[in-house]
Amino acid sequence: MKFQFHGPVELPNGKTTSTDIPKHVFQIAIALILLTVIPLFINRNSHPPLMPSPKIDSDQYGLGSRGFEKKCDIFAGKWVPFPRGPAYYTNETCNLIIDQQNCMKFGRPDTEFQKWRWKPDECELPLFDALQFLELVRGKSIAFVGDSVGRNQMQSLLCLLASVVYPKEITEKYTSDNINFKHWFYADYNFTISTLWSPFLVKASDADPSGHSYNSIMNLYLDKADEAWSANITKFDYVIISIGHWFFRPLMFYENNQIIGCYKCQQENVTALTHYYGYRKAFRTAFRSLVSLKDYKGMTFLRTFSPAHFENGDWNKGGNCVRTRPFTKEELKVDQYIWEMYFTQVEEQRAAAKEGRKRGLQFSLLDITEAMLLRPDGHPNHYGHSPQRNMTLADCVHWCLPGPIDTWNEFLLYMLKGEAQTTFGRKLQRIA
Ligand SMILES: *[C@@H]1O[C@H](CO)[C@@H](O)[C@H](O)[C@H]1NC(C)=O
Ligand SMILES: *[C@@H]1O[C@H](CO)[C@@H](O)[C@H](O)[C@H]1NC(C)=O
Ligand SMILES: *[C@@H]1O[C@H](CO)[C@@H](O)[C@H](O)[C@H]1NC(C)=O
Ligand SMILES: *[C@@H]1O[C@H](CO)[C@@H](O)[C@H](O)[C@H]1NC(C)=O
Ligand SMILES: *[C@@H]1O[C@H](CO)[C@@H](O)[C@H](O)[C@H]1NC(C)=O
């Protein structure tokens, strides 16, 4: 199976995020929250969260029950002006920005979108410190598993680290597919970054053997983890999982090698299921595989759903993203499907965290959805190019570099530091 990377062409169906939300959406969201979140929320302060996400689990870092200092919820906050941005690099100082995300190179006229930083409500999010990051990951490896938005975060990380050191690309040592799989090695730190292409996490194939188009059906084997990642994942210390946008295309769902239903396949003899059904099962299968892989000792992050911001039409009907500033919380209108994608994946992550804990595995959230909902200005729109790209389509799914996606790696560093303290705390306990 091979997917080609053609910029936003590969993303079958973004949706608009700007339509008015009917009241019932809030009711559904609130019902979901009541069912899944409230017990974890008792300690939150009075500020009503924009997106009341279930992230403050006192045990997210394995710390709460041990009486260590409670961590700040870095994912609830707001964007504040940062006039001297971009904070870390430009298209001139980092030469690893790919054309699809190199918005300045391709003529994006405004720069204000690079001049904001995320301010958590309860604390400060430190600037990304490349040296500190590299020391923390010395001798280790990170895999980004998922689709091209996950790769987008990897590209951001490469540029954030480039102020200290450039990696050597070692992809060809492992694979001839150097588009969908990439491996970078930092010799001075014996540190590896990889991207493993798996836009569904489960085994998938084109229903039409001659390839796929925007609206062709993909077969998903919902109970089989995609070997593109699962066959080689045990050697990684950190695994960042993320999927989403491929689930809006027509899908045929298999379990036990039998068709059990489909999404948008338009076959009357096949049961219609929602894409949330497949999305949930894909996470469940992926997380269960990780828990059951005996040699896997890594820390798993679910990077939550990254919202698209098409306005003025759907992704293939002239939709675009021309804004140049973040939304304020008052301006923000969120489509129901984003909440549903989010809660679906977070519920599966919680179940995995519980199972994983039994054998000492950590499953954490890189909970970017709320922050990124506020950044309609962060996408390439028409200022990202790739050779095969149909330029009449805007890319409101990926994120410009530099840009707000750099914040994801600030979050990541913060969490790695938290993890380091946990390990230290555990060591202390062992010694005591
Ligand atoms: C960087 O962007 C500027 C526009 O801001 C452009 O003139 C320049 O050619 C770009 N340089 C590279 C190396 O992409
Ligand atoms: C580099 O890290 C790997 C684990 O990722 C380890 O097996 C190896 O011994 C390390 N090499 C050196 C030279 O420290
Ligand atoms: C797993 O890694 C090995 C090399 O370490 C490579 O030969 C193989 O193709 C990889 N498997 C997959 C499914 O990517
Ligand atoms: C549904 O019907 C079509 C033709 O009408 C057939 O090709 C297909 O195999 C059927 N699918 C199932 C799951 O029975
Ligand atoms: C590009 O996309 C537009 C809008 O979907 C479509 O009308 C046009 O035919 C496409 N062009 C090519 C060359 O695929």
UniProtKB/TrEMBL annotation:
GO MF, one example: O-acetyltransferase activity
Transmembrane segments: 24-42
Keywords carried by this UniProt record: Membrane, Signal-anchor, Transmembrane, Transmembrane helix
Keyword presence, Electron transport: no
Compartment annotation: Membrane
InterPro entries xref list: TBL (IPR029962), TBL_C (IPR026057), TBL_N (IPR025846)
GO cellular component: Golgi apparatus; membrane
Phosphoprotein in keyword set: no
Family, similarity comment: Belongs to the PC-esterase family. TBL subfamily.
Protein name from the UniProt record: Uncharacterized protein
Organism: Carpinus fangiana
